[in-house]
Each structure stands twice: as C-alpha cells, then as structure tokens.
Design a protein that fits this description.
Keywords: Metal-binding, Repeat
InterPro entries: EF-hand-dom_pair (IPR011992), EF_Hand_1_Ca_BS (IPR018247), EF_hand_dom (IPR002048), EF_hand_pair_protein_CML-like (IPR039647)
Organism: Lentzea guizhouensis
Strand content: 5-15%
CATH architecture: Orthogonal Bundle
Distance between the termini: 16 Å
Pfam family, one: EF-hand_7
CATH class: Mainly Alpha
GO molecular function: calcium ion binding
Number of helices: 9
Shape: globular
Length: 183
C-alpha cells in the first residue's frame, strides 16, 4: 500500500461519510446512492435506480461492512483504510467488487443515454454529489478523456475507477476522481 492510495481512500471516505459524523454506516451508503438518484432524477428510470441500490447494498455487505473490526455497525477511517488495503489488494477482483456498482453509476451519470459521459454530465454529478468543484471536475475530466473525444466511454470510466481504487501513481489521471486529494 502506498501513501497515495491512503490519501485517495481518505478522500473517498470524506465523500462516503454523507452525514459527516466521522464513520461510514449502511445508512451513509444508502444516502450516497440517493444523492446520485436524486441528482439524476433516476426515479424516472426505476430499473437503474434499483440496480444502484442493490449494487450499493452488495458493496456495503461484501466490501465495507466486513471492515467493521469492532462490530459496532460503523466503519471509521482507520477501519476503512485497512479494509480497502485487504479487500482491494487484487485488481483482478475489480469486476466483482467494484465493477457492478461503477456500471450503475455510469448509467446514472450518462443522463442522455448515449453510452458516454460528457463534461457537463460529469461536472453535474461530481459537483452535486461528490463535492468536487466545477474547476476540479473539468481538470479531472480532461485528464480522464485520454483519447480527447470529449466524452468518457464505459471502458474509460472503468479504467478511471479501477485506477482510483487500485493505482499507486500520484500523477495518474484518476487520483482526484472523488475530489482533490490532499495530504
């Protein structure tokens, strides 16, 4: 585990601790999904919203809840960091651990359904739900749009999410995916 990954996980923790009480609970994970659903008016797309809720419940049950070392139903920053170090040690497990949830988020972010995320969609969702400034969103998006097409296809998006959770390069495009990483 590198210091870079610890910093990224800390940033993700800040965005996942929706109620700001210093721990992640099942309720936080649900609220995280509700933020995305509300920002995207996904009630109009119930199948996508249901997939996201189910995916997040599986993410909570399979990845986050097992990090709760003291059994109090809450995962603090130390537990989460140590848990991610264990759970996300093998990048080959991405398709099972993170991929399904990432697919649901992709579908919610891709508001117009053209199977690509443009800068406007990216900025809207990450600034509203991830607390990332529009300026930071633009910089991250530009870095993630490796082919310069003006949009992220599903493969580019998955590459970014995998790079965020598994990568150790402090200069990688996805380092700031969930907000500016600071020491």
């Amino acid at each position: 585990m590198t210091g870079v990954r610890d910093l990224k996980y800390r940033q993700w923790f800040r965005s996942a601790d929706v109620d700001g009480d210093g721990v992640i609970t099942c309720q936080d994970v649900r609220l995280m999904g509700e933020r995305y659903v509300a920002a995207r008016e996904a009630a109009q797309r119930p199948a996508t919203a249901r997939q996201l809720v189910e995916g997040l419940e599986a993410f909570w049950t399979g990845v986050i809840a097992p990090m709760d070392q003291d059994g109090d139903g809450k995962v603090d920053l130390r537990e989460m960091t140590e848990g991610f170090q264990r759970a996300l040690a093998d990048r080959t497990l991405y398709p099972h651990q993170v991929g399904p949830v990432a697919d649901c988020y992709f579908d919610l972010i891709d508001l117009d359904g053209d199977d690509r995320i443009d800068l406007e969609e990216f900025t809207e969702i990450f600034s509203l739900t991830g607390n990332v400034s529009p300026e930071d969103c633009a910089a991250v998006f530009e870095a993630l749009d490796r082919d310069g097409s003006g949009g992220l296809d599903r493969a580019e998006y998955h590459q970014a999410v995998a790079e965020f959770f598994f990568g150790d390069d402090p200069d990688a495009p996805a380092v700031h995916l969930f907000g500016k990483v600071t020491a």
